[in-house]
Amino acid sequence: MEKMQSEPATILLVEDNPAHAELIMRGLEDGRVANRVIHVSDGEEALDYLFRRGDYADSETSPRPQLILLDLRLPKVDGLEVLKEIRTSSLNGMPVAILTSSQADADMAKAYEYNASSYLVKPLDFIKFKNLLDDLGFYWLCWNKYPWKEK
């Protein structure tokens, strides 16, 4: 299928593992949806970006993402705490897809308790991982409709 011709979507990738981050960014880059990936490597930086603090205070250089891809095991602020902060703020309706290697029932339950939009486990197989990213981008940025808008 060909890439969609539209305005690039902004995706905030919150991933502390550099190898995983590189695979995810490459997978999204090769996908069917035009996008711009902003990568941060810990939960504190993700919250600074989302709430426009410090280096991310300028809305021109730190646009709101249409999708957040959030790992759970993060330095400084855990991914579940980042999700909780988002869901108790004015950004509550923003789509947050958990993208993690954790298959623990407790992690899934807590993520959905905090209203994760989706919970995806990173496949170990490279082709399956690439297919997941392609489908994920297409679903969240093209097919799915949601009411969130920046206020």
Which terms would index this structure?
151 residues, alpha/beta, Rossmann fold, five-stranded parallel beta sheet, 17% strand, globular
As for the number of domains, it is 1
Order of helices and strands: EHEHEHEHEH
Strand elements, count: 5
Mean pLDDT: 87
CATH topology term: Rossmann fold
Low-confidence stretches: 1-5
Alpha-carbon Rg, integer? 14 Å
Helix content: 25-40%
Biggest sheet overview? 5 strands, parallel
Biggest sheet strand line-up: 2-1-3-4-5
Give the end-to-end Cα distance, rounded to a whole number of Å: 35 Å
CATH superfamily: Response regulator
Briefly note the structural class of the backbone: alpha/beta
Describe this structure in words.
The chain has 151 residues and is of the alpha/beta class. The protein has a single domain (9-143), classed as Rossmann fold (3-Layer(aba) Sandwich), CATH 3.40.50.2300. The protein has helices at residues 18-29, 43-50, 79-87, 105-113, 126-143, and strands at 9-14, 35-40, 67-70, 96-100, 118-121. Strands 2-1-3-4-5 form a five-stranded parallel beta sheet, sandwiched between helices. Helix 3 (79-87) links the parallel strand 3 and strand 4 (96-100). Helix 1 (18-29) packs across helix 5 and helix 2 packs parallel to helix 3. The longest helix is centred in the last third of the chain and has 18 residues, at 126-143. Mean pLDDT is 87; it is low at 1-5.
